[in-house]
Amino acid sequence: MSDQVLTSTANCAGYTCLAFARDGSRIYTGGSDSLVRIWKTDLGTDEEPDLSVDAAEGITTLAVGKDIWLSGSADNLVRQYAKGETQDPITITSAKAVPIRCVAVDPKSQRVAVTSDEMEVKVISLEDTTDMKVLSGHRKAVRRVTWHPSGSLMTTCGADGRIIVWNMSGDEPKEEKVIEGVIPEVSDPESPEFSHDCSAIWHTSGLHFFVATKGHEIVTISRNTWTKASTYSDDAATGAITSLAMSRNGLYLASATKGGIFIWSTQNRRMLFRFNGALNAMVTQLAFSPSQNMLAWTDVDGVLTRWPNPIPATAPDPVTITNASASATVPVKRAATPTLFDKDEDAKINADVDLDDDMGIDLDNDDWILDDLGDGMIDDEKKWSGKDGIREMVSVTKAQPAFQPGSTPMENKKRYLAYNMVGVIEVTDQDTHHIVNVEFHDRSARKSYHFTDHFKYDLASLGERGALYACQPENDHPAHVMYKPYGLWASQGEWTYELPKGTKVLGIAAGGPPPTKSLRMQSDADIQGNGNAVIATSDGELIFLTGGGVERCCLSLQGDYVSMVAGPEWVFIVHRDGSTTMDGSQNLTGRLIKFDDYCLLQKDTLPIAKGQTLKWIGISEEGAPVIYDSSGVLNALPRFRLPFAATWTRVLNTNALARREGKQESYWPVGVSGETFMCLILKGRQEHPEFPRPLIQELPLQLPFKRTETKDGQLEEHLARETMLLDIIRDGLGDELGTDEIARRELALDKEIIQLIQSACKADKLARAIDLVKLLHHTASFEMAIKVAQFYHLLGLREKIEALRDDREDGDDRLEKAREKRRDRERDFVPVAPPRQLAFTESSSSSMPKPFSDFRPPPMIHRPGLERAGPSGTNASTIPTAAKSTQQSIATSESTSSWDLDDSQFQDEEYVANPTPDGKRKRSEEREVTINTGAAESKRRAVGSEAAPQARANPFARKPGADTNARPNPFSSRPADTLMNQKSLHKSESFFTKVDAAEADKSKRPLKGKAKEKKESGGRQTTLFGLPPPAPPSISTTSSSDKKTPGPGRPKKKQPTPAPSVAEETQQSTVIDSQATEIIDTGDSQATEMDVNMGDETQRTEVVDGNEDEPIEWPESPAAGESGLPEVEVGA
Amino acid sequence: MALPVSLRTSVIPQELELVACEQLVEIVPLVAMERTAFISGAYGPLRPPSKCKVPIWMAANLKMKKKCHIVPPEWLNVEYLQDRLTRETTEPQFSEMPFRFAEIAKVLLDVASDDFQNSDRLRSLLKDIREARQAKSREGLSKLDHSDLNLPNLCAIEINEIRPFFVRAMGVLTQLTKDPAGQQMTY
How does pLDDT run across A559-584, given as a tens digit for each residue? Predict the structure, then answer.
């Protein structure tokens, strides 16, 4: 028999059914013209088939038994004919005026099951047609019925979406199992879905059956558990499955979809072969010939197609029953695999097949095909049959075609040309022309527009400053590219760029810096320009133009172009170097090419797993290139500014998302912004977003760290993620040391690191703690770490931290070091600095705060009548300016010793200068509480002794960013001040280490008149920890001055002192504080230092024991007893 | 108080609506805006296409100027309400609903019905739920006694609805039970 596919028009258009005679000699076809034709399979297409004309309405089903055939038709009768006969039917049964849907004869040809649009299934004995059993269980029409190979089970598939398995072995059929939710619910007989085959096709082994699910997959349902055992899927075979057929020996399963006819191996669940011809109409029924290597099908056009030799000669034929067909199981067993190729296989094949099996598990979703492309099989005939000894499997990886990120194919005359963080370009096909509708997410920045497009643009790119469109050559007009900048009069800024005849546009990208002002205002050309445009052509060129239409550069494309996207400074191009690899990798390379000099910035292979394809590329808000592949992994290139040194980092694995569990959904990327992945969520097997436009969902980025179930793990993950984002910003710093923003974020990170250190100390993991300490950013944070170590009595650790701190202090400033590093690199490659904003635009923004962006509390109204009583001298500074006080606090908390100084100053002021009752009233309330309340004395003292030094060392106390994040009420604090002061944050370090003069200057300030300020900073400090600083009575002043060698000049030298001395310092201050409280308590001013020290020590340990193990009272403590000062939220 | 007597006993639905409008709702802004200070707090920044949480009054305001899309709260969809309605009709107690669901749903459906799928169905479901709950609170009238009334999951607007009558009725009942003698005297 020739290999030619035979097609013959069997019936008129409509649902057409098909059945092979059991010996394979005849094919019966029936259709909506109510005729049944009987074809002899050994004759060609020119045969004139026999005709049966009994039915009055369309034939809906055909079945064969031993020497008989049956037809069911819409005229509600089931007719039985002798084999090959067209006359004298016996009417077996009838339905009550509803069409028959399915007839199935059991394997022994004894019984026939009949389903119709009634809810009951009839099982009739062929010997005695009056012997009828009625099975009811379905709630709607029963669409299909099939028999188990043994005849003991019967499966019926209803329009209610249920599969019922009946046990037919006994006298009375019993319902064995109802399987719900597998097949779709289709109740409308007119809908195309109704004619899709939903029958349960039993495997010849009888261990499981195959069924097409509503998710358009083929699944096997095991007989033992009646649950889904495995899935057959392949990217080529998508869409609704219209028909299924099992080969006689059970080795092959054929399925038909809109896209084609596929033959699967039942052994390794992989698609093996595919019908090469085009399908003109939906296939309604498929059948393997029971006697030959032949597959036949009928379609809705009423055409019968016979495909001889669907299985190549090298593979086992579909008819001969081998041991494999009996033993084939769902989870592939090694024993069963070899028969796929030959019974006398050698070890090599064995190995190959095993390899396939292993891969088949995770390659559900791939675009690559090993050997299963039909043309690969047939064209490479010599490979299969030429050499007898060695049979090798050839991997053919399908190269993924070029794509435009954010575009979708045309569906229902609509498509998205671009969908990114700027906006959306939607296209509606109007047959003769397209309507292009451009909408922006931010309508305040850019104005939406639409236009009629006669060129049928099929590529578009939405840049920050303009949209680029490209059309392909057609008839008389060559391909061209059009650029439409935003915010210009009508077509003023537009330009088109024509390509030579025959050249196609493969991809385009529009890039540019984000606009500084709204582009809604139609104005003259912007000084920033209109961005850049890049065009990739089929001539292998990469053409760069400026937004104004100046042709700048024409590079050559290496290899096949795949995709590109443009950022403000560069274009990210993905292409294939050479070809795809044998083992399934797409072999894609990404390049970053700068717009200013058209030089390469990065070049790296894209991290796409074998068998996966690139789905999307984009640019994050920070400017890093991002890619998303078909396996659902998002990768970013955070350090892209370091030439040729950046690495791809996994930032999100969508497969591991918690929300994905139990759901079938996929994510269609739109953009990455900060810590969120913006995407559209697609349900089921949907591949592209549809219309109307779905809402953009935000998924938080999550590095695929594995220990995220613990709190530490989460913190570590966040630490790494935030560091990654910070690195992007730091790389762009250039000559600057840092920005306020960076300092704020680093501080927040330090806080998390301290939390991690604490839990490491708690668990006695000292090495871990050391690692974490090394990650701290600010020197002041070390003090906190020391406190933590001290709390857990980890003296060794504390010393190490101190050593680390000193090392940090002695060495160059961290920020300077980072800058030095950048400069070092500069000697080899200039790191790419972010584009400078022109001064021209900057000048337009005024320094005045905008009307509603001032979150400071309203300015205090000066009411002399309500003024606190006090000496007239100090009253002048009652309302210190915010900036002044903050600066003061920064300056004072710069070193621990300067704090001590302030304390003593304060004490002097408070108690010496104002001994009157007036002076008492001046004290803040908590201060009085401290002194007067005796009840909570011991606790207070202990906490005070703990907290006071902590307060001084607290790195968060003065940091500007600490309170901006977690502030509940933005009105009550002063971000403006903190922002103002953030500048001084960095300078202050060097300021203090280098410029002694300033410090000396400060310390020399007269004490008089500073009282208010001191009080202010003291009060601030207090509120930070929710704990009143120990109230120092006048005696403590003296005692402290005794021990501390007080003096204005001291603090400036304190800063760079080595660790032990600092420790001593801390110890000392502890002593002082405790002593102070002790003194109030007992009035015994003569207590020796030693005694107090010991007492304090014991007190503290007691408290520590009772105080769980929280050395730092993170968020809760501050709020207590506080009022009016919202900077308390330190640890929140 | 300068209010008419009928209004003194209880707040009016409009007032409840106003109160409910302070709650936050997610929007997808269509305009960019810096973080802005309002009397009730600072909201923003609005950065399309990122979502942002703003109070309902602000969302409604922006929506009316076509400057945002409102993201429906997770309880304001057909499946959730259908489920609640079935529970409401089958179970004796009040099913759990957000405290101010009625007001929020009204405001959101009034201003942003185009942001909801199947808003007519939502409206009818909300009406059904409301009627079912109203029937229950009417039923609760028979169980009214002088001392306490325990109606878990009763929502703001329903409490408001029954308050004037219940309070008075309970007052009377208290008088009747606590002070039978006094009652004798008064009558």
Answer: 889 999 999 889 999 999 888 887 88
